[in-house]
Amino acid sequence: MATNDYESGLKMLEELTTNARQIQDQLLGEILTKNAGTEYLSRFLHGQNDKRLFRKNVPVVAYEDLKPYIDRIANGEASSDILLAEPLTGFSLSSGTSGGQPKLIPVIDETTNTHTMYNNIFRSVMIKHFGDINQAGKRMELMFVKPDVETPSGLKATAVSSRFFKRSGFRAILPKLYTSPFETIVCPDAKQSMYCQILFGLIQRDEVVMIGSVFASGVLRGFKFLENNWQELCSNIRTGRISDWITDSGCKNAASSILKANSELADLIENICMKSWEGIIRKLWPKTKYIGTICTGAMMQYTAELEFYCGGLPLVSGFYGCSEGAVGINLEPRSKPLDVSYTFLPNSVYFEFVPIKEECVANSPNLVESVETKSSDEDTEPVELVNVKPGQCYELLVTNSTGLYRYRVGDVLMVTGFYNNTPQFRFVGRENVVLSVDLERTSEADLLKAVTEAKTLLDPLGFILTGYTSYGDTSSTPGHYVIFWELKAKESNNGNKLDPKVMEECCSRMEDSLHFTYRMYRRENIIAALEIRVVKQGTFEELMDYSVSQGASLSQYKTPVCIKSKEALEILNSRVIAKFFSPKTQLNLLL
Ligand code: AMP
Known about the structure:
This protein is of the alpha+beta class. It has 22 helices and 22 strands.
């Protein structure tokens, strides 16, 4: 990025965040002017494009409410004027692996321009904090393209990340700025793709200045893969020949032009991998400045293990976005995952926020207090972007030019402050992911808080928690919470074993850290003792493989915080190596 572009990116950020109110009003005006006559909106607006009428008459909806309209478009009914006036260019395929089903989100030409604008602003912010890494070297980003799904209309449904990776502009800069050749990214076999991307990252280790993947689970999967396959990778580097099981022609062609016999490099990598894996990234890729990957929300559970490999490198959660639109960027990329807030940019989506009345757990002690003390009889009418209040949690609604009007994304966010006149939000969790065995509702954030408390007990034993998920077991009465944990021994473990006493204490600590209703129900024997099931190492990878085999995108995969599918539960249960229950009796539970 030339100096001018970098400065204009920062200038644009100032303009957008200073004039948020006017920009949001203007944007909504444009969306309504274009689309007021559509079949959907005319039911509520009768052809008018007035903002007050929009906020008064157009209902707040979930995907299921718009699905019949979207299905008609996907099934080939002329696309104009059902939900939006502009013709669609395709659909985004939402991952939906964080609680829901894959959804089809309409896409128009403009969508790509918005993403480009967001990227430019974000790049300017990153240059400000880390210098221009494009001038310094290459990125080893693990990228996976999921095949398109063709709808009966002929329009293709594509994961947002896949669309980005396949764009001609991205393809043009790939060889200069990234270590992964295009052929390895589009390889339909995830294992071959991963193997080759890591191989090429190792070969170009002296040039690598950034390592990443969209979500933290992807980066971790890469390091685990390397941990299991470094001998074979080194042997390929030593001989200059790629393993026979790499049969994908694109990957083989890429290897033939990059892979040369280099025994010196193979020795060096082998020497590093034979020793401690703590801080391995700095040793293998010494010029790396940061790990670029989303570590907030459901990804927070991966940070401990990532930090183990990173050796103190910053974990940068750069942006918050979804198939429904580009939403916000992190203006303080060096902040720790727990402290990350995203600044919303006001010019592509008209945002509204439904205040959440119940206690909302943020993962920051500074914020919890302000949330707990907020008035409980506050209005629950959606508020506009510039009218949100610091410390309050909201559910996000979007209205955009692709036919979504007052649409519930399903994410819960907390306001942490303002940048100029634009609010900044912490990601709290998915609204629809709840663990419940009776009338209580345990959110993703509740669970994360309890797990975070409990896992501190593992430190003295030399174990780290590398993955968790949960399940409401109602097969017996009363039902109880089952938390699956995958653990890994640290280098400093000294052969320590899991101590049943400590594990039981972890169960109790989780119970003490869960919300009031949970503890009250436990006391009343409406819920039975919480159980931790420790699973074999690699189980969470198998869970991911299963999801991917069911159509989830590898790039956008998120471990479900709560297991709903019978098959996924079977995968977990068949790999349990130990079970522990909370020893708490009803009477010694804290209220
Ligand atoms: P998808 O529609 O498949 O792209 O998934 C989008 C969802 O991923 C969002 O609605 C969030 O729930 C989650 N997500 C995206 N970005 C972040 C982030 N920075 N932090 C936490 N969760 C995120």
